[in-house]
Amino acid sequence: MSSCEFKFTPNEYKSDLKPVWCPGCGDFGVLNALYKALADLKCNPQDTVVVSGIGCSSRLPGYVETYGFNSLHGRALPIATGAKLASPNLNVIAVGGDGDGIAIGGNHFMHAARRNVDIAYIMMDNEIYGLTKGQAGPTTPTGDKTKSTMYGNPDAAIDPCALAISFGATWVARAFSGDIKGTVDLMKRAIQHRGFAFLNIISPCVTWRGDDLFKELRGKVKSLPHDHDPGSRRQAQNFTYEEEIVTTGVLYAVQHPTLLDEMGTIKAKASTSSATRSDILKVFAPRF
Amino acid sequence: MTQELTLSIVGSGGDGAVAAGDILSMACAREGLNVIKTEAYGPQIRGGESSATVRISTAPIYSQADALDALVVFNWADYARFRNELTPAPDAVVFYEEKDPPPAGLNARFFPIAFANAARDAGAPNGKNVLALGVLSAAFGLPQDALRAALRARFGKKTAAVVEGNIKAFDRGIEIGNEVAGSVKKFAYEKKAPKLVMSGNEASAVAAIDAGCRFFAGYPITPSSEILHFLSEWLPKIGGTCLQTEDELAALGAVVGASFSGVKSMTATSGPGLSLMAEMLGLSSMAEVPSVIVNVQRGGPSTGIPTKSEQSDLMHALFASHGDTPRAVIACSDVEDTYHATVDAFNIAEEFQMPVIVLSEQSIAQRRETISGDNLVHDVIDRQLANPEELKEFRRYRVTENGVSPMSVPGMAGGEYQTNGLEHDEQGRPNSMFVTHETMNAKRYRKLDALASKYRLFHRFGPETADLGIICWGSTAGVVREAVERLNQGDLRVAAFAPRMIMPLPVADLEKFIASCGELLVIELSYSKQFYQYLRTQVDLPKKTRVYARSGGKALGVSEIIEQCVAEVLA
């Protein structure tokens, strides 16, 4: 497509590929929110890269008419980091599930966050491994019976937002995919944030976690109190590991130099303009 | 007449053995001599025993020496650790600290010297290494002016008293050395144009810059970290980016991401890191995103012997990652070859859109060698992007005759595509149909055929036809080359073939070589004979082909190969 005839409507971001997701899956809400967010922000398709790992939600890049990379289980963030560093003008969005990002890719989550690489990372948290058909994941509540925990999940569940805040992400928010309007708003802010923005979207799995979950969640979802200070890491952590409520909104937002800023500083220190090939070879020459 | 000399200096941390090796190498490089310098260390992070061995020659050299002509020992306890690797020749000269008498059983000529006291008296309390350089230069006729200049350059940033103390220690060493000079064969040479002194790792790093690499991601690992170190300093100076990642999975991941974005990218590692990169290697192959991986082999398996060389990552480099995964593998046989192999790797990666592994070895990567800067020139192929015609109804994975499809990068309007580790159709959409899988496998593998006909890279040494043919690869080629030269001075006609391109192997050239030889001998540093096993899948080796394969951990010697060749012919 050429950008001159592009009108920036949500529909234009839709690819002709039909999602493999189950009817009623929370990820549809996330995908529709992303179309809307990209359209609202007038993101050029050729300058946008959506990178994912593996899992139900990681199928998403194929459904978006931008550049996309459906990569390996857990490895979206290193690829997104390389893509952004190599081509700083790109709008890089990483997406994936809770198992992809916290279990197999947990190490990359920590380091992408602490580097403050300027990407938006959207996690679709469904508390289960859906694509492999129903095993416990890192956000599955303790005690839940799944296909891989027939006597109840022995492990403690992780709150992805708590991790992101402690890893050094500079923008952390929680959304609910049943609330498209709220999700679109948070997605846009995540994409616009300068630095590593982490958006955890509660995206229920109707197949393995039950049909009632949407209804149940609607009763639990609450917005952040008006007096919440997103500049306070301590206050932000108050809204993690919640019981019986799911608080949505921007828990944490600060500004720190991004990885690209730091790379710029390094290049300045290394005095970019002066090095030539003969400077490099001089390192190896007997200079006496 | 070729003049040759191999010297080794052994001591504890702080004795300056390694520094002395550096100074000597640089001085010889200024005189235009050929040098190969190796170092060895105990396992301690700081201090502990260390040794520097410098082989100097008026003719080109391709390997470490088998035996030492001269040995300086500050401490015999330190020498004991290296005694299997540092063997004096029968007529070798050994200079040792007089307070520490040599052990019984060494066959050489011994000269006690009060290194520590003489250096202190000359005004350089830490200068016994410099004093030793003076002794060696006088005894063997090594370039004293160049050594003095190298010393001044080395200590230039210290106080004048330190510089002068060291020069005095050097001159005192000359006086001591003159006393034995009459009984030692002199090294005579003509001064030539100065050379560069470079390690294999440094050659990889410089080659990457020359090839247009502007993104490097890596995780520290012995013995490849010097590539990360060099690029961490130099990439930012030329507008590039160097990233130290959290692990090797992320290192190759970032490389694949950066390359997908349109920038030539590389990582470097050693065996354990390559194990972790296996899945990402498969992605680079499947998504057809160019990537370059320098793998510096060390002793394996598992953590193995991090500081020593072996050729046992071969099968891993050839077949790592699940599924049918085309990739190219290039070997390096010496420092200069490492430069060319690395540029070739970028050219192949970009032209054929696949991962390329440069298989180096600790013995090349960490040794320093003199090379002529004029030889560090190699044509560079840049990424070929889709043209406007191809961008109309763009198919990123279009099935073509040679398997290479038009490529776009983010930022190019009309080139938008979603790539995949999943099997995919021409548009990059996931597809699990047999027909698609077969078609796409064939497309990806056709690139190897195109590559094989364009890059028939190998070394061949010796006469056109031979009684005995040696097949080897990597660092072994350098040792074999010298053995072949020596053997052909006698009655035996010996030739050698060392593929530089290991995957795809230049099969027709190898077959031609096999047909030109009587007997065949395969030589490699892998206990399980990985190279021989691989050759058997690629060519018909004669039934009586012999294999000389042993573990790494000790450099292969020229005399070791000559012994094997003679045994082969007598058998």
Explain what the structure shows.
The complex is a heterodimer of chains A (288) and B (571). Helices cover 33% and strands 16% of the residues of chain A. Chain A has 10 helices and 8 strands. In chain A, helix 8 (233-237) links the parallel strand 7 and strand 8. Chain B is of the alpha/beta class and 571 residues long. Helix content of chain B is 39%, strand content 21%. Chain B has 19 helices and 21 strands. Chain B has an 8-stranded mixed beta sheet with strand order 6-5-4-1-3-2-14-7, with helices on both faces. Chain B has a 7-stranded mixed beta sheet with strand order 9-8-10-11-13-12-19, sandwiched between helices. Chain B has a 5-stranded mixed beta sheet with strand order 16-18-17-20-21, sandwiched between helices. In chain B, strand 10, helix 10 and strand 11 (291-297) form a beta-alpha-beta unit. Chain B is globular, with a radius of gyration of 26 Å. Classes of the chains: A alpha/beta (288), B alpha/beta (571). At the A-B interface, strand 1, strand 2, helix 2, helix 4 and helix 9 of A face helix 1, helix 5, strand 7, helix 7 and helix 9 of B.
Helices and strands in order:
The complex is a heterodimer of chains A (288) and B (571).
Chain A: H1 26-40, E1 48-52, E2 67-70, H2 76-86, E3 91-97, H3 98-104, H4 106-115, E4 120-125, H5 160-167, E5 171-176, H6 180-192, E6 197-202, H7 213-220, E7 221-223, H8 233-237, E8 246-253, H9 259-269, H10 277-282
Parallel strand pairs in A: 1-2, 1-3, 3-4, 4-6, 5-6, 7-8
Antiparallel strand pairs in A: 5-8
Helix pairs in contact in A: 1-6, 3-4
Chain B: E1 4-12, H1 17-30, E2 34-41, E3 49-57, E4 68-73, H2 76-82, E5 88-97, E6 109-113, H3 115-122, H4 128-140, H5 144-154, H6 160-181, E7 196-199, H7 200-211, E8 215-218, H8 225-234, E9 241-244, H9 248-260, E10 265-270, H10 271-286, E11 291-297, H11 314-319, E12 328-331, H12 335-352, E13 355-361, H13 362-365, E14 368-371, H14 388-391, E15 418-420, H15 434-454, E16 458-461, E17 466-471, H16 476-487, E18 494-499, E19 501-503, H17 507-515, E20 517-524, H18 530-538, E21 546-549, H19 558-570
Parallel strand pairs in B: 1-4, 4-5, 5-6, 8-9, 8-10, 10-11, 11-13, 12-13, 17-18, 17-20, 20-21
Antiparallel strand pairs in B: 1-3, 2-3, 2-14, 7-14, 12-19, 16-18
